[in-house]
Amino acid sequence: MVLQDLGRRINAAVSDLTRSSNLDEKAFDGMIKEICSALLEADVNVRLVGVLRKSIKSSVNFKELAPNVNKKRLIQKAVFDELVKLVDPHPHTKPFNPKKGKPSVIMMVGLQGAGKTTTCTKLARHYQSRGFKACLVCADTFRAGAFDQLKQNATKAKIPYYGSLTQTDPAVVAKEGVEKFKKEKFEIIIVDTSGRHRQEDALFQEMVDIQTAVKPDQTIMVLDASIGQQAEAQSKAFYDTAAFGAIIITKTDGHASGGGAISAVAATGTPIVFIGTGEHILDLERFAPEKFVQKLLGMGDIQGLVEHVQSLKLDQKDTMKHIAEGVFTVRDLRDQLSNIMKMGPLSKMAGMIPGMSGMMQGMDDEEGSIKLKRMIYMCDSMTAKELDSDGKIFTEQPTRMTRIAGGSGTSVREVEDLLTQHKMMAGMAKKMGGNMKNIQRAQGAMGG
Ligand code: GDP
């Protein structure tokens, strides 16, 4: 079960209940039970699931509900809020905030295979795209090939790097690299340290030595989501040695146990700064509990998408504003399609756009790209009036579809399909706009 399946299961439990004509306490208990077993299967700690069960239950008291209260809304909100609480670390420390014009050293620690080297490059790219001068230092002298891997990743992403093939003391390499880049006025200096199979004393001693040598402004632990609730014990062992400040959880794309890992770390109060969502360099998302739950429940992650698009410096026009207002024109669809083509693997982007993942289901990235290109050609054969419409213009005057098919080298059937997709996405946007307003309203009402 991957994380999206967990979301779908929770969503289905809530929708089944809110759609049923018999919304009583027994059905409500059934929904809670289903949500809890889905979370347990995703390796969320039993105690945390118990807390969530009690909180959802007590937030809707059937006996004392006034007759005019909207039970559906109340239940949806209770589930949403409790899921957010489950993954919210409420960090004790302030988030790390690098400043332009000043060097910040970030040291990455973690076990071998957790995704540390990959995450170092993703993080450097993240800061680079936000205008920081970022670079990488490879202080992993333990694993043969570690420097090569970092070199390859860094070269692909055009990020300067430092490492040594001859120096065997990682603390010395780390210090040399950091000093060199500080002199060259780099602002984000990321130090990759070695990981080993298990938590070994030697590894821990090495971490302390590197930490002493480079005095990092932030130490980040990289954890693999597939370890589930073991994340708590693992992060504690590292904390006792390295006193790290934050965590990045990788591979949340492949495992439902990401839910277990995130909630386990959240329970320790250690900030989760990012999550890894795939192997591509762009697959790094800032972790925000509410947005994470929104995406988990298929509500899309509009803000994440906006951030992502801004970092790519793409032209986003008014689409996001439109979606927040519950509007989605044919032109919005066209803009999104062409942006998606530039953004990286399609499968990753799909989850961020409401209604999009269903559209790409069963296709690999190449088939998806061909389909997208044809859709863009069709949009490009439309007039401005058609593009800025809500799509009804085509059902009122179907000859427009024939003209577009002819102009774009596609079939009328494909144009019809495109318009069906648009209609569905417009419907989702309308709901999303409503949902966003509801969430904002609910938060406002709670003073959140
Ligand atoms: P290290 O030993 O901790 O430095 O781990 P690597 O950076 O070499 O990563 C180990 C493997 O995990 C590689 O195949 C990466 O592509 C993969 N990986 C890293 N992060 C993610 C992620 O967020 N999602 C997925 N699916 N794979 C990842």
TrEMBL record:
One GO MF term on file is:
7S RNA binding
Query: Which reaction equation describes what this protein catalyses?
Result: GTP + H2O = GDP + phosphate + H(+)
Q: Does the keyword Iron-sulfur apply?
A: no
Q: Where in the cell is it found?
A: Cytoplasm; Endoplasmic reticulum
Example GO biological process term?
Answer: SRP-dependent cotranslational protein targeting to membrane, translocation
Is the keyword Ribonucleoprotein in the record? yes
The alphabetized UniProt keywords are: Cytoplasm, Endoplasmic reticulum, GTP-binding, Hydrolase, Nucleotide-binding, Ribonucleoprotein, RNA-binding, Signal recognition particle
**What is the predominant subcellular site recorded for this chain?**
cytoplasm
A GO cellular component term found in this entry reads: cytosol
Ranges for the SRP54-type proteins GTP-binding domain? 271-284
Could you describe the subunit structure of this protein? Fungal signal recognition particle consists of a 7S RNA molecule (scR1) and at least six protein subunits: srp72, srp68, srp54, sec65, srp21 and srp14.
What family does the entry list? Belongs to the GTP-binding SRP family. SRP54 subfamily.
Q: What does this protein do?
A: Signal-recognition-particle (SRP) assembly has a crucial role in targeting secretory proteins to the rough endoplasmic reticulum (ER) membrane. SRP is required for the cotranslational protein translocation for ER import and preferentially recognizes strongly hydrophobic signal sequences. It is involved in targeting the nascent chain-ribosome (RNC) complex to the ER and is proposed to participate in the arrest of nascent chain elongation during membrane targeting. SRP54 binds to the signal sequence of presecretory protein when they emerge from the ribosomes.
Domain characteristics, as noted in the entry: The NG domain, also named G domain, is a special guanosine triphosphatase (GTPase) domain, which binds GTP and forms a guanosine 5'-triphosphate (GTP)-dependent complex with a homologous NG domain in the SRP receptor subunit srp101. The two NG domains undergo cooperative rearrangements upon their assembly, which culminate in the reciprocal activation of the GTPase activity of one another. SRP receptor compaction upon binding with cargo-loaded SRP and GTPase rearrangement drive SRP-mediated cotranslational protein translocation into the ER.
Q: What is this protein called?
A: Signal recognition particle 54 kDa protein
Q: Which organism is it from?
A: Venustampulla echinocandica
Q: Which residues of the full protein are shown?
A: 1 to 448 of 529
